[in-house]
Amino acid sequence: MGASGAGKTSLAEQMFFLNKAIYRLGKIDEGNTTLDFDAEEVAKKMSLGLSIGFLNHNDHKINIMDAPGNPDFIGDAIVAIPATENAVIVANAAGGFEVGLELALEQLEGKKVGKVVVVNRMDNEHADFEKTLESIHENMGIKPVGILIPIGKEGGFEGVVDIISQKAIRPSGISEVPANMTDAVEEARLHLMEAVAETDEDLLNEFLENMELPMDKLIPGLKQGISKGEIIPAFACSAGTGVGVQAFIDAVIDYLPSPADINEMEVLSNGENTIIKTSPDGDILGYIFKLYADPNMGDFAYVRIFSGSLKTGMEFFIPEKDAKDKAGNMYYMLGKNRIDCNEIRAGEIGALVKLKHAKMMNSICPINGKLSINTPQLPTPTYWQCIRAANQSDEDKIGAALQRVIAEDPTIRYEINSETHENVISGMGEQQLNLVLKKMKNRYKVDAMMKEPRIPYKETIMGSTESHYKHKKQSGGRGQYGDVYFRIKPTDRGEGFQFVNSIVGGVIPSNFIPAIEKGLVETMEKGIIAGYQVVDVCVDVYYGSYHDVDSSEMAFKIASSMALKEGFKLCKPILLEPIHELVIIVPSEYMGDVMGDISTRRGRIMGMEQRGKKQYLTAQMPVAEMYFYFPALKSFTQGRGRFTQGFSHYEKVPEDITQKVVAAWQDTEA
Questions:
Q1: Distance in angstroms (rounded) separating the CA atoms of residues 514 and 498
Q2: Which end of the chain has fewer CB atoms within 10 angstroms, the N or the C?
Q3: In this structure, are residues 305 and 314 in contact, taking their beta carbons and an 8 Å threshold?
Q4: What is the DSSP letter of 393?
C-alpha cells in the first residue's frame, strides 16, 4: 500500500526478478510490469486494481498483493487487508508526507495486521530515510523503527545495514558495517531492542538487567510486536536499482510474522466474535478478497486460505450467501499468468474460476460450517453519476456488463433510484467511475455515458383547502360521470399520504372509493408542480355525486386526479430536498477554509472534535450541493480532506431554487 508513484509495483517487479519468478525486469514506463497488466493500467502507467503474485526464496513462499495508490481505488486495499499478515506501506524517500501514504496508514488504524514501512526510491535526489520516518511520526503519531538502514543516499545509495545481524548488505555481497556507521547502527539496534522489550514484561526485565536481548528472544519478540501492531519496522531500498530489495526479502522471511507465527484469528461464529486456532490440518477456512472479470476465462476469485486446504472438486459453504459452491480449476497467479495447481493450502493465496455464488468479501468454510471472516467496513460514496447506454442497441447489454465490471470494485454502488427512475452509480471519485465506462467498452463492447443525477426532490404542501371536480362527458353512447369534493391538508413531516373516506348516505357508492384513492396515489407518484413524488398530504373525500349509468371507476379516478391537482396548487406547494449528514475529516490547518465552504453550500455545522492532528467535523448538507463536494474538498485541502455520509432527513427547498426547478419541469412538459 502507499501513495501513487511511491514505487509499489516496481518494488514487486524487482522482487520477482531477483528471485527468478520472472526473467525480464519490466518497467512502468514501458507498460510491461507483471502486476500492471490491464489495458487501462498500461495506458495510464499506474495501478488501478489489486493484483497478486508470489515468489519462492530459501524454501519460503512470499505472496505479494499490489494495491493501487490512487485514493479512488482505496476499496481494493481495504478488502485485501484481512487476507494478509503484513501490510507493507511503501513511502517515497523524496516525496514528503503524501496523501496516499496518509490514506494507507489511516486504513490500518485498529486493524490486526503487521504494519511495515519500506522507504523506497532511496537513490532519488533529496531522498532522506530519517526525514521520511519522521514525517510519518509527526503526522500519524506512530514511530517506525529502522531495521534495514541505508548506506548512503541519492546517487550514493549503495546498500543497507541489517541492524539485527549487524552486517552491511550490498548487491555485491555481505560485509562488515562501514566504520562511519558503527555508532548509528548501535543506536538503531538499541532503539529496536527497547521497542521489542516494551511489548513484553519479561523481555523488559531482561533488557533492563543486561541492556541487551539475545537473538532467540529478540526475533520472536519482534515478530509478536509486529503482529500486534506495537512495532512498525522500517526498511530502505531502491526498486529502480534493486539496492536493498533482496535484503528486504530476506528480512521478510527472518523478521516478519508468517502464517505459521500467527495461528490464532478472530472470526464470526453465528454472528458472535470468537477466537480460533488455524492449522494446515484443520477445517477449511478461506476469504475471497478480489474478483477479476476476464473476458475470455470468466470471473477469477482471489482467495486466501487460513486453515485447512482447498482441493479441486471440493465442495464448500459460503455462510454470507447461505449457499454451497464447488472448487473447479484453481491457480496460483503471477499477475495475469496462471500456474495450474490442484490445492491451495493454509497460508497460500490462489484463484478460483467459475464459482456460482461466491463474491468479494465472502468466506469459505466446510459444508454446514458456521465460521466467517470479519469483513472490513467500506467507506460511503463521495461521487455520484447517472449511467445509461449511449445508444439503443446497447440498452439490453448494459446491465450485465455493468454488474460484471463493478463486481471488481467493492466501493462502487449501483441502484435504480425509485424516485427519479435513474440508474445511479456511485463511488470514491471521478477516475474510478470513468474506468467503469472504459472497461465496459474494452471488455464487453458496450458504450455507456454518465451525467449528473437528478435530485430526488419531493413535493408537499404548507396550507389547506377544499377542492371540487366534476368529470362529465355525455356525447352519444355511454358517458362518463364522477364528482368528488375533497378537503386537502398537510400531515406531519414523514407521515406520508393519508386517505380519509367521510362519505355518508351513499352519495358516492362504496365500490368507487378505491378508484378515488387510486387516482390520488397515481397522481402523487407522478408529481404535480415539478414531476416529483407528493408526500405528507391528507385527502378527505367528504361529498360527491354519481350517475346510475355513466359513473365508472375510470371516471372517478379522473375526477379524483383533477381535484387533487387543482386543490394542491392552492395549498402553498413547496419542494422538499434530501439532506445528508457528513463527517468531514481534515487536518486542522484547513478548518477555516472547510467551514467557510460548507456555509456557501447551504450546509450547517453540527459539531466538531479534534483527534490527533485531524478535525472531525459533523455537518448537514443538501444532496444538491453534496454531489460535487468531494472534488472541491480535495482541492482546498491538497487532497487530504475526506468525508463519509448518510441520509438524514428531508427539508424545505429555498424559494429561489424551487422556482428554478418548477420552471425547468414546466419547460420540459411544454
A1: 13
A2: C
A3: no
A4: G
Residues 6+ away with beta carbon under 8 Å from 134: none
pTM of the entire predicted model: 0.87
Q: Give, in order, the Cα–Cα distances in Å from 507 to each of 197, 483, 510, 541.
A: 91, 10, 9, 11
Indicate if the pLDDT at residue 670 is higher than 70.
no
Please check the confidence at residue 668 and state whether its pLDDT lies above 90: no
Domains, the chain, in order of start with CATH, read: 8-174+232-255 (3.40.50.300), 264-373 (2.40.30.10), 383-451 (3.30.70.870), 459-571 (3.30.230.10), 577-657 (3.30.70.240)
Residue type, 64: I
Query: Do residues 13 and 7 lie in contact, with contact meaning Cβ atoms separated by under 8 Å?
Result: no
Name every residue whose Cβ is closer than 8 Å to that of residue 468 and which is 6 or more positions away in sequence. Answer: 483, 484, 485, 486, 563
Query: Residue 211: its pLDDT value, please?
Result: 87
Q: What is the DSSP letter of 381?
A: P
Q: Where does 111-217 show beta strands of DSSP type E?
A: 114-120, 145-151, 159-162, 167-170, 173-175
Is the pLDDT confidence value at 478 over 80?
Answer: no
Q: How far apart are CA 590 and CA 163, in angstroms?
A: 40
Q: Which residues of 365-397 are buried (b: 16+ CB within 10 A; e: fewer)?
A: bbeebebbbebbeebbbbbbbbbebeeeebeeb
CA-only gyration radius of the chain, Å: 32
| C-alpha cell recorded at residue 174 | 555481505
Residue spans of alpha helices (H) in 82-160: 99-108, 129-140
